[in-house]
Structures are given as structure tokens and as C-alpha cells.
Design goal:
The protein is mostly helical and about 90 residues long. It has helices at about 1-30, 35-60, 65-85. Helix 1 packs across helix 2 (about 35-60) and helix 2 (about 35-60) packs across helix 3 (about 65-85).
């Protein structure tokens, strides 16, 4: 069970990181963008670390309040949940 959860978290965080990178690339090219709700959903369902890293690495969505507040908040919640079940 723990292995499956770790695999899920690795995959969802990688997806969130890549999604932020792709959206940044599309923004530069003026192409169709990934909806903000999709990016936030990826963070909410376990990809908060990947989303946060994507924000920093790609310098994307760093000026949007909902991202600068919600993504770190989701990270704190995910850390609390992981700590509760693992400690």
C-alpha cells in the first residue's frame, strides 16, 4: 500500500511539474493554454510539490495570488497528511 502511494505521488508531482512547464512554453508562443483550474487541481490531488517546483523552475504563475497562496498551503496540508500517516 505505501509503495503504491509513493508511486502515485511521484507520478502526480511529475505531471504537475511538466504541466507548469508546458503551460509556460505555450504562454510564450501565444498558444492555447492549460486552464488554471487544471494546474490547481494537479496540485490539490497530491502534486503540490511538483507544482511549487514548476512555479520556481519555470518562473510561471508566480505573480498570481491564487497560486502563490494555494500551492504552498496545499504543500503544508500534504506534509501534514503524510506526517500523520507515516509517523
Amino acid at each position: 500500500m505505501a509503495t503504491n502511494i509513493l508511486i502515485y505521488l511521484a507520478i502526480i508531482n511529475l505531471c504537475a511539474f511538466v504541466a507548469f512547464g508546458i503551460d509556460k512554453l505555450k504562454a510564450r508562443r501565444g498558444a492555447w493554454r492549460t486552464p488554471e483550474s487544471t494546474l490547481l487541481l494537479l496540485a490539490a490531488i497530491g502534486g503540490s510539490f511538483g507544482a511549487f517546483l514548476g512555479m520556481k523552475v519555470w518562473r510561471h504563475k508566480t505573480q498570481h495570488k491564487k497560486f502563490t497562496i494555494l500551492v504552498p498551503l496545499l504543500m503544508a496540508i500534504h506534509i501534514a497528511i503524510i506526517s500523520y500517516f507515516c509517523l
